Amino acid sequence: MRGTVIAIESVDPDGDGDLHVIVRERHPDGGVTLPGISVLDVRPALRPERDPRRGEWVTGSGPVFRGTYRQKQVQTDVFRVWRP
User: Residue 83 pLDDT more than 90?
Assistant: First the structure.
């Protein structure tokens, strides 16, 4: 999936060091979590040196799992940030 960052959670409440990125999908009919919206769960090993900011483009891929609140989210195997 690919889209723009609309929010991030830099400090994971369960303390495992994951970065959670909420993304507005490039294609409106896409979306894993909600229509047009996906949550990416980025494990510490894939976390970039600087967390992405609102409006930056990101891409991520991996299997879909249920999160803490039973939402669908992508457990990323690949994560990239494009900065202007």
Answer: no
Query: CA 71 to CA 49: how far, in whole Å?
Result: 27
Distance CA 47, CA 49 (A): 7
Contact between residue 64 and residue 11 where contact means Cβ atoms under 8 Å apart: no
Q: Is the pLDDT of residue 28 over 90?
A: no
The residue extents of the domains of the chain are 2-82
Q: What is the DSSP letter of 44?
A: G
Sign, CA torsion 39/66/78/26? negative
User: Nearest CA to 61 among 3, 11, 12, 6?
Assistant: 3
